[in-house]
Design brief:
alpha+beta; Alpha-Beta Plaits; 5-stranded antiparallel β-sheet; 3 helices; 38% strand
């Protein structure tokens, strides 16, 4: 299993818009091939911090997802509503930075 973790610091005045967009993304989008889970969590200690997580069955399907319009739209929305502070790919004990153009 491969996990994508993106930590976003949302602008306080954009928090409600971010939450609505995140719910729409999680609930209304059909799963892509190889996608096991998509979820988003709010940090209890910092209510403007959110963690977006995806689980994938293979690197092949993950790579196809990274090249999709859906993923580009997701990143674009995160950048408009806040700042991507951290983006990682986690596979077993191995972590690598997910290169996201700022």
């Amino acid at each position: 299993m491969i996990v994508v973790k993106i930590r976003v610091e949302v602008l306080p005045d954009k928090k409600q818009e971010f939450e609505q967009a995140a719910r729409w993304l999680i609930d209304s989008q059909p799963k892509e091939e190889g996608n096991i889970l998509k979820s988003i969590y709010q940090d209890l200690c910092n209510p403007n911090t959110f963690y977006y997580l995806e689980e994938w069955d293979s690197r092949k399907n993950l790579k196809a997802h990274f090249q999709s319009d859906k993923f580009r739209a997701l990143l674009g929305g995160m950048k408009v509503l806040g700042e991507i502070v951290e983006a990682k790919i986690i596979s077993g004990a191995r972590e690598e930075e997910l290169e996201i153009t700022k």
